[in-house]
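Our preliminary data section would be incomplete without showing what the modeling component actually yields. Below, a chain of 474 amino acids is followed by its predicted structure, encoded as tokens that our downstream tools consume directly.
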Amino acid sequence: MADLRDWLREVEKREEVKLIEGAHWDLDIGFLTAYYWKQWRTSPALMFDKIQGCPPGFRVLSNYVMTPGRMALTFGLPADAPDKEIMAAVRQRMPEWEARSKDFAPRPVKKGPVMENVVSGDQVDLYRFPTPKWHEEDGGRYIGTGCAVITQDPDTGEVNLGCYRNMILDKKTVGLEMAPGKHGRLHVEKYHARGKACPVAISIGHHPLIFALAGVEFPVPEYPLLGAITGQPAEVIQEEITGLPIPADSEMVLAGWCPAGQKRPEGPFGEYTGYYASQEREEPFVVVERIYYRNNPIMLGAPPGRPPNGFSYLHSLMRSLVLENDLRKSGIPDIVGVWTHEAPGTLFVTVSIKQRYAGHAKQVGLAARHLVRTGLGARYIVVVDEDIDVTNIADVLWALTTRSDPEKHIDIIRRTRSGGLDTMIRRPATSFHGSTAIIEACRPYEWLSEFPKAVEFSPEVEKKMMAKWGKVLS
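Predicted structure:
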């Protein structure tokens, strides 16, 4: 079982939930959420209740996985673990979880909390719920930000959960913005190629682990992976309209159809790049035929915005561990660490290695470019030595400026994959291509032993000094 309310009770015990009453859906919730981003490593989770213009009891939760402690709680790790240890623990366990996922197929059930309220047909009204307008220049109210969009491959039957934004277009319709190549978009395109509407279900509130898994491309399906991490199969209900499996413990689910050959204007929206990168444009949409929701439902809000913030930290951690494990699986030796920086995300990737042979750094950079799974890919990939802390941007810049020569150590790969959120593509655009710079910021392998020594204390001296002065420093 993966229930948001169980997770929330644990956070409340830690006194990390701030209740805010009386906010309006129009910018109040968005502003307060963004305000706490500035203290994201210590920010409380924000629970909005008694929202103006909405029925009482309909709530919005934002800033939930903002701190390393709440991230650890989400993955069942000690809540006081440092973020480096959290990343290391999740990365080390992920291969095991992926391998075990085949033993944790979702468990079908007939009933669940999400079925406490069911509305269909003419009773469907999305404006009944406290959907915020998150950013000042947004084109509308986005009900799907911390969501999990559920689709199914019509050929293989594989179910995917993806975090794709959903703007309310009218009381029965939401937009469905998906980057090219995403699993959900491929599913939709397969149905549409056959002239058929694609069944879609959208979970609007759920355990943060579902949000974390839906926001990153894993090599195994999300439901079995969820079961492997929690140790219990995910309980799902076969939704009556679409036939899709929906989380039995979800707070709220929209179910409907994405019609073939039809699009409607969607956007703009303040995205994770920190810009209104995509202006209003034609996108697919979902006609909602049924809404399921719990009593006093909690909608999850995960609005992106100018990084760094808590959600960029979450995505950086998740994408970093996926990329690191993929690089290790590739057979390239001595991968030490990977980090996609909190500000630009996978647009700026750093990989540290212990150099073993000439061309090692270039091989790693090229492999990382291939393995980055996000819609925009990577714009800069910096490969550094093992003594560089990839999570410390100052450390990375030190290596970049002292161990690389622009003339010799930068390669540009042109006409790479990009997407509609790319700020460097001028609109209107007929295609979305980008480029990637691979920068070798390692000490040159061919004269490694001659490279100037870094100014630092040896591990032996550091150990001796800590034994002598540790009490003073603590």
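The first helix runs from residue 4 to 13. The longest strand covers residues 285-293. Preliminary results of this kind motivate Aim 1 of the renewal.
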